[in-house]
Amino acid sequence: MKAMVLKKISPIEEEPLEMVDLPVPGPGQGEILVKVLACGVCHTELDEIEGRLKPKLPIILGHEIVGKVEKLGSRVSKFKIGDRVGIAWIHSACGKCSFCREGRENLCTRFQATGCDADGGYAEFTTVSEDFAYPIPERFSSSQAAPLLCAGAIGYRALRLSGLQDGQILGLYGFGASAHIVIQIVKYRYPNSRVFVFTRPHQKEHQNLAKKLGADWVGATGDTPPQKINCAIDFTPAWRPIVEALRVLEKGGRVVINAIRKEEKDKEFLLKLSYPEHIWLEKEIKSVANITRKDASEFLPLAAEIPILPQVQEFKLEEANRALILLKQGKIQGAGVLRISD
Ligand SMILES: [Zn+2]
Ligand SMILES: [Zn+2]
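Above: query sequence and zinc ion SMILES. Below: predicted holo C-alpha cells.
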C-alpha cells in the first residue's frame, strides 16, 4: 500500500513526509482492516513533524480517518465488510486502570494515540480495534466527516467539561476549527444561551464567521463584554486569553483550556493573575486532554442531526507535505483533508 511516512523530526518546509510502499497490515484479533477513504490534516501533525510532540518513528500520521471496513480479524462482531467507519485520536486504552473503569480512558497511562503511538491514516489502509471505530452517519461525505473526528469531537468534549447550562453565557476565545463547531452545537442544544466570541483584533474573517453562525457578541481578547460569562473555552495557543477570560468570568464559573500545549511567548501574562480579580469566588480552570470513545460516538450522530457540515479543501495523499505547509501558513479554506480513495 502507499503511505506517507515520517522518519525523522524536521521543519515541514523540508517536506519530510516520504511516499513509501508498505505491506497492507493484517487485522489482529478484535481488529478491523480499514481502507482509508479520507484523512483530515491537523495542527497536531505539525507538532509531531516539528518535534513539539514526540511520535514513535517511523510513523504514519493522521487521526481523522474515514474508511471502509475491508477485512475482519477474528472475533470481530460490531462491524461487517463494507461498513463506513471513523477512527479518531484515541487508538486504544488499557481498559483496566481506574481511569478506564470510570469512563475517563482519555487519561489512561497507556493511552495510545492514532498517528502518534500507532500508525494512522496517511495511507491506503490502516487497522484498529473494532472497539475504537465509530459508524459514520450517511449524511456526511467521507471528507466532511473527517474533521468532525478531531476538531468536532474535542470541541464537544470541551463544551461538556465547561458545564454550560441552557440560558447561561458561554465565552469562546479563538474561533478556528473547533470553536466554529462548538457554536453550532450550543445554538442547537442550548437555545436560550448566548455566545460571546473573542478573537485577535485583526481576525475580521473569524469575527464575521462567528456572527454568521449566531454569535451574540463579538470582540477582541481583552475586551469587556456587555455581561459576565458563566463559562469559557479557550482554543488558542496563548496565555493571555486565560487571564482575560478569568477577569470577565462570573462567580463560580469555569474556564476550559482546549490545547495540547501552550506557547511560551506570552507567558508573562500569568504574572497579571490577581487572586481577588481572577480566582476568588470559586472560579475554576480545567484543561481538556484527548477524547474518549463516548465523545466521538455521541458527537457524530449529533453533528448529523444539527447538521454540521464542515467546509473542506481536498488534497491527494502524495500532497500531504503541501497541505501541511498551507495549514501552517493559515492558507487552507475550512479544513484540509487528504482524499485517498473513492
Ligand atoms: Zn487533530
Ligand atoms: Zn487505562
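The first strand starts at residue 2 and ends at 6.
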